[in-house]
Amino acid sequence: MGEVARILKKIIKFAIDFSEDITELEELLQNKPNYEYLSSVELTEFSKYYWPVWKVENREVCGVLLRYRFSQTKEDIKVAIHLADLSSRGHIEALKKVVTKQSCLLRDLEGRTPLMWAAMGCWKPTERHLECAQLLLNRGSDPFAADLRGDTALHFAAASGNLPVIELLIRAKADAQAANLQGFTALDTAQAHDRVEASALLHCLTASQTDNVSSRHTVDKRGSSQPKLVKTPSATAEPVASSAKTSSENRKILHQLASAVINGQLDEVKRIASPNLIEERLDDDSKTVLMLVADSDQWHSASYSNCVEHILNLGANPETKDVNGDTPVHLAAQQNNIKLLTLFPYSVKFLKNNTGQTPLMVAVLNCSWRCCKHLLHLFRQIRYRQDKEELLHLKDNDARSALDYARLSGRADLAKYIETELNLTVSDTYPCISGLTEEQESAQTKLFSLVQKGDPDGELKQLADHTNCDLPNALGQTVFMRAVWSRRCSQENLKFLANYADSSCTDVFGSSCLHWAARYDREASIKLLVKAGASVNSPDQAGKTPLMCASENGKRRAVELLLSFGADRNLTDCEGRTAARWAEMKNDDEIAALLRKLPGDTVEKPEQTVASSAQPTGSQLVQVVPSVTADISQTDDAGSKNLLWLIAFSEDPTLFVTAKSN
């Protein structure tokens, strides 16, 4: 090791002296042990010696060092520099003629591959740079490769705001969590360069990249987090029979347990429930405890969700079917039980019964508006958009879709709502919803304005109804979502909207109304949402629960309130972080202690400093944004990386669009 260090120090001396005689250096590097070490040494160690040479512009020594690092010839480096030039300029036709499977892996004097230059796009990426990147990947370019600073192609795409290439690289399995020598991931790089749209895109794409493990971080501990496409049973499908008939004693206990869940008696549920009992079926109609609960129209108890979560965690299976092939999801949709429906995993929400009906069809037949909306709104999220075309056009055994059911049953307003959702699209380029008609956009803008300004003349009650209070803006936010966040929306109007709106609705990133209420410490909104059926443990696309959002943003009251409603402090996001860990990362010892304390412990509340109390709130930051040229990278007291989300909540509905175009 000492000999290698001596060699590398000699390289520095060559560079400083601008020596043109590199014969001795070549001889030293041709020695096999030295050569093998140089080609395998950690990037951090290699860069420590390389960049001093680069800074004094001794390209001859740099070339020697690179050749032995990457096993390239002088000619290889020349080819790499030529390909880098073509890729950075977006010269796709010329690139097609010269790039090969071998040459697309070559490195220039900075250790960069042609793919990295295509991703960079000379800081002004175009469609041609996307074509170059696609070509290079098709020819075998490595999306995992890093240059001598540890930056990958994804880092360069993030730095330049090259949205199409970001998505292309993620599809090519590029590692979004890879950090460069400074410890920056691609997301960190995008934020450092104030690339707001790239930050938003990387946020959702990196979350979807970890979906395969996120199931263990949420309430659902049974199903896969990836959508499980529809299982289509035959018309004569029978439920799985239990090995023996249920005894009369067990039938009594099953009904007793179901009653305890329905009435929100959590202690009683914990006393009675067991993994074996929740798998038992009633002999007459083959229903399980979960089916008995789903088939009841009584689901308004405050602890109802906690009781359901307890039996789900014990192994209650939402995929089981009764004699009609109905799952608990079908039964919940029939009863318009939005509180139960939100607790089921996405993978079971579009299964078919014996007649081929999905829960959405059942909800339409029973005019269960809340459940219809919940099932339709799922496809506004980035992670589920790819399934929309298939799942919303499913047909039963008589070739009828959910839209057909709405039309045939004479529910024109519901049919129109389904048509609206079918027309909405989530962009493949960056997270953005489009597809509203001019009339719908006008109604949405008017309602947003009334919510933000406080509606002094009572117009909101005259305009809002089932069909317009859940219309999404570009980021998937609805009027009700804005109402639960806004300080200017009266409690009267908030309660009015709650009668029509989907309390479980999320934006494109999976953040629900409850996530936003928790972020901004809206106590009344949190209480209203939980009562309306919002799940306190529902994760967004990154695996963050409302409790984590409150903890991350230093909202003690929201943390305490969510805990009182049964929020699980032990859940982790897709990065393995609990709510307490989020508080620690924000240096909030008070909330961290609150989340880690045992029942019965007390937590002393530290004195708040003048400096901290003087910090502006998020809403205040929005009010002082002077124009569409404002710096949207500034942060609020909640630690947000930029004002993108705050702008989306501003009074001016055009501000977000203008800021995005900038």
UniProtKB/TrEMBL annotation:
<dbReference type="InterPro" id="IPR050889">
    <property type="entry name" value="Dendritic_Spine_Reg/Scaffold"/>
</dbReference>
<feature type="region of interest" description="Disordered">
    <location>
        <begin position="213"/>
        <end position="249"/>
    </location>
</feature>
<dbReference type="Pfam" id="PF12796">
    <property type="entry name" value="Ank_2"/>
</dbReference>
<protein>
    <submittedName>
        <fullName>Uncharacterized protein</fullName>
    </submittedName>
</protein>
<keyword id="KW-0677">Repeat</keyword>
<feature type="repeat" description="ANK">
    <location>
        <begin position="149"/>
        <end position="181"/>
    </location>
</feature>
<feature type="repeat" description="ANK">
    <location>
        <begin position="509"/>
        <end position="541"/>
    </location>
</feature>
<feature type="repeat" description="ANK">
    <location>
        <begin position="542"/>
        <end position="574"/>
    </location>
</feature>
<dbReference type="InterPro" id="IPR002110">
    <property type="entry name" value="Ankyrin_rpt"/>
</dbReference>
<dbReference type="InterPro" id="IPR036770">
    <property type="entry name" value="Ankyrin_rpt-contain_sf"/>
</dbReference>
<keyword id="KW-0040">ANK repeat</keyword>
<dbReference type="Pfam" id="PF13637">
    <property type="entry name" value="Ank_4"/>
</dbReference>
